[in-house]
Specification:
Chain A: This is Acyl carrier protein. The complex is a heterodimer of chains A (about 80) and B (about 500). Chain A is mainly alpha-helical and about 80 residues long. Chain A is built from five helices and no strands. Chain A starts with a helix and ends with a helix. Chain B is built from 18 helices and 20 strands. In chain B, a hairpin with a 2-residue loop joins strand 12 and strand 13. The chains are: A mainly alpha (about 80), B alpha/beta (about 500).
C-alpha cells in the first residue's frame, strides 16, 4: 500500500470527513486534529513505515499539509531502506 | 548585564526551570536567561513567609507523582543528580476519606488501595476489578505518551485505538456513572481531580486515568522545604552553568525581525536578545500582552479560544498551636466530602448567582486538606485546605466587595474544617485565605488557573501553538504539557530533546 492511500485510510478512521476532501493541499489546520489524533498518526507512521515523525515537525509548521507529510515519509523511507 | 543569550524563558515557573536545568545539563555551553516578574523563582511552585505567624506556606499542592523507582519524574530528577539533594517524604496513605458518617484511610500502594476500596464498597467488587484493569492498560499508555512519541515505548495499537474511540470523549463523571453505582465511591475516585484543577464533569476520562495511574502506581512524594526547595535547586543549576534567573523583571513584549523570526524580549530592565524564546506563561496572557499585531496570530487566537483554563482554587492557610496530627488530622492528606450526593458545579450562567456559587464551591465541593507538619515537622504546625473554585463570582481585588467575600470564604471553609475535624476548634492560631484573584495576581494566569489548561474532552485547543507564525517561539508550561509537576518535567524533557533538531 502506498503512503497516501495508507494515511488517507487512517485519517478517515479518525475524522468524520469525505474521502474527496483528502487532497495533498489539505492543511492540518483544516483537518482540525486534536493532540491525541496527532499522537495516533505519528505512531501509525512509525509502525507502518519505520519513519519517526517528531512532534516538532507539526508544531514548528515544517509539515503544513498532507502533501508535506507524504513527501517527508517517502524521503525518509528511502533513507531507512538504504540504511 | 549580558544582553545576548542562546535562549530566553519568559516566566520562571516550574516548567521553565525544569527545561532550563535539563537543557544546561545536556548542553553545558548553552547560555539561558530566565525572566520573571516575581521575586522568587518557581511560579506556582513557590512559598511565602508570614514571620509574625512564624510560618512558611507552600503555594502549590506539591504532591509529586512518578517518584517511584520506575517513575518518569524520578528518572528525570535522578539524571540531574537532584534526588541526592532533595529530602523526600513518602506517605503511607494516598489520602484519608472523610464522609459525614465514616472516615477511612486509603493506601498509597495500588494493590492495598484496591483492597481498601473493596473493604469499604464490597457490592462494587466486580466494577472495581474492571476499573483497575482499565487503569492498568489505558492509564499506563497515557502515562508513557511522551516516550511513545519519542519511540521509546511500544504501545499496543488496538488498545490505543480503543481508548481514542471510546474513552477520549467521556467526562470522568459520565465514565464513573457508567462503571459504579455507589456515589461515595465515585466521589473518592474523582477526588484526584483536585490535583489537576478539574471536577469530574470537567475532566476527560482518558486523561484522568493517566493522572490516577501516575499518582497511584508510580509512587508519589513531597519535597521537604516545600515546592520552593525544588524550584530553587533547578534555578541554581541554571545559574551554575552560566545562565541567569532574572527576577523582579516584567517582560513587556516579544520582538521579532521582518522575516518573522524571534530575536528577543523587551523588559522593564531593557532589551535582551536570543533567537529562541520559550513562553512559560498563560498563552492567553501572552497572546493578549506580549506580541505585536501580526496577521498569522489570528489563527492562533482562534485555536486558543478552545483552550479552557483549569479551575482555580481557594486556599485556607492555617497554623495550629499543637501538631495537627494530635488534633485529629492524622494523614498527610485528607479529602473532605460534603453530604450532598447530587453536588455538581454551577454552570457559567449560574455564576451570576453569588450565593449559589459560594454554596457549591466552598460548602459542597470536595475539600483537600494537607497536613504539612507530617510532611516536614521542621516547617511548623501548618495545614492547607483547598477547594476548587471559579473566578467568575469573585469581584476585583482591592474592592470592599472582594474583602467581604474573602471573609465569607474564610468562615465557610473554617466551619467545614471544624465539622470534619472538631478537635481543631480552639487550636487554630493563624488563618489566611487566598482566592482565585490571588493566583491571577501572582501568575498572570487567565481565570486564576494555578494548573494551566483544563484537560477535558475537547483537546483541539491544546495544539494552539502548532504552526506558530514567528519562528523560534516555543511554549512551555502546564498550559501545553497538562497540569502536574510530572507532566511539566516530561514536556520540558521533550523540548530539550528537540533543541538540536
Amino acid at each position: 500500500m502506498n503512503v497516501e492511500k495508507f494515511l488517507c485510510d487512517a485519517i478517515l478512521e479518525l475524522k468524520d470527513i469525505d474521502e474527496s476532501e483528502l487532497v495533498p493541499s489539505l492543511s492540518f489546520e483544516e483537518l482540525a486534529l486534536d493532540s491525541l489524533d496527532y499522537v495516533e498518526i505519528q505512531l501509525l507512521i512509525q509502525k507502518r513505515f519505520k519513519v519517526a515523525i517528531g512532534p516538532e515537525l507539526f508544531s514548528t509548521g515544517k509539515l503544513k499539509n498532507l502533501g508535506d507529510l507524504y513527501r517527508h515519509i517517502e524521503a525518509n523511507q528511502e533513507q531507512a531502506l538504504a540504511a | 548585564m549580558e544582553r545576548h543569550w542562546d535562549a530566553i524563558c519568559v516566566g520562571a515557573g516550574i516548567t521553565s526551570l525544569a527545561f532550563g536545568a535539563q537543557l544546561v545539563h545536556r548542553y553545558p555551553n548553552v547560555r539561558l536567561l530566565v525572566i520573571d516578574k516575581h521575586t522568587v523563582p518557581g511560579g506556582y511552585a513557590t512559598m511565602f513567609r508570614r514571620p509574625k505567624a512564624d510560618a512558611i506556606f507552600d503555594c502549590s499542592l506539591h504532591k509529586l507523582s512518578g517518584m517511584g523507582e520506575r517513575g518518569n519524574l524520578f528518572r528525570i530528577l535522578s539524571d540531574l543528580g537532584l534526588t541526592k539533594e532533595l529530602d523526600l517524604h513518602r506517605s503511607e496513605e494516598y489520602f484519608e476519606a472523610n464522609f459525614h458518617d465514616r472516615v477511612f484511610k486509603l493506601s498509597n500502594s495500588i494493590e492495598q488501595f484496591q483492597v481498601d476500596l473493596l473493604r469499604e464498597f464490597p457490592a462494587q467488587s466486580q466494577a472495581l476489578k474492571e476499573f483497575f484493569e482499565e487503569l492498568a492498560v489505558h492509564g499506563r499508555n497515557g502515562y508513557y505518551q511522551f516516550q511513545m512519541m519519542q519511540g521509546n515505548y511500544e504501545v499496543d495499537f488496538a488498545e490505543l485505538r480503543f481508548a481514542h474511540r471510546h474513552l477520549k470523549n467521556l467526562t470522568v463523571e459520565d465514565a464513573l456513572r457508567q462503571r459504579f453505582n455507589d456515589p461515595d465511591l465515585r466521589r473518592i475516585i474523582a477526588a484526584t481531580g483536585i490535583y489537576v484543577g478539574g471536577f469530574s464533569s470537567d475532566l476527560g476520562y482518558l486523561y484522568f486515568l493517566h493522572v490516577l495511574y501516575a499518582t497511584l502506581t508510580q509512587g508519589n512524594a513531597y519535597v521537604k522545604g516545600s515546592s520552593q526547595r525544588l524550584s530553587d535547586l533547578l534555578a541554581q543549576r541554571i545559574e551554575n552553568a552560566g545562565g541567569k534567573v532574572l527576577l523582579g523583571t516584567n517582560v513587556h513584549r516579544v520582538i521579532s525581525d521582518n522575516q518573522d523570526s524571534v530575536n528577543g524580549v523587551v523588559t522593564s530592565k531593557g532589551n535582551f536578545y536570543a533567537n529562541r524564546v520559550y513562553i512559560n506563561a498563560s498563552p492567553h496572557y501572552a497572546m493578549s500582552q506580549l506580541f505585536d499585531e501580526h496577521p498569522g496570530l489570528t489563527l492562533v487566537r482562534m485555536k486558543l479560544a478552545k483552550l479552557q483554563p483549569s479551575r482555580s482554587t481557594t486556599t485556607l492557610y492555617l497554623t495550629t498551636d499543637l501538631p495537627p496530627e494530635q488534633l485529629g488530622v492524622e494523614s498527610a492528606e485528607s479529602m473532605i466530602f460534603s453530604e450532598n450526593l447530587d453536588w455538581e458545579p454551577p454552570s457559567q450562567s449560574d455564576d451570576s448567582c453569588e450565593m449559589l456559587a459560594e454554596q457549591a464551591f466552598w460548602n459542597e465541593s470536595t475539600m483537600e486538606l494537607t497536613n504539612y507538619h507530617l510532611l516536614d515537622p521542621s516547617g511548623g504546625s501548618i495545614l492547607c485546605a483547598n477547594v476548587l473554585d471559579d473566578i467568575g463570582h469573585w469581584p476585583h481585588r482591592k474592592s470592599e466587595l472582594y474583602k467581604e467575600k474573602k471573609h465569607r470564604a474564610q468562615l465557610a471553609l473554617l466551619e467545614r474544617l471544624y465539622q470534619a475535624k472538631p478537635q481543631l476548634c480552639g487550636h487554630v492560631k493563624y488563618v489566611e485565605l487566598s482566592s482565585p484573584r490571588t493566583y491571577e495576581r501572582f501568575t498572570n494566569n487567565t481565570d486564576g488557573a494555578g494548573y494551566g489548561a483544563m484537560v477535558g474532552t475537547d483537546l483541539s485547543g491544546h495544539i494552539f501553538h502548532h504552526g506558530f507564525p514567528i519562528s523560534g517561539v516555543h511554549f512551555l508550561s502546564a498550559w501545553v504539557a497538562g497540569p502536574s509537576y510530572e507532566a511539566a518535567f516530561g514536556y520540558a524533557e521533550m523540548k530539550v530533546n528537540q533543541w538540536a533538531a
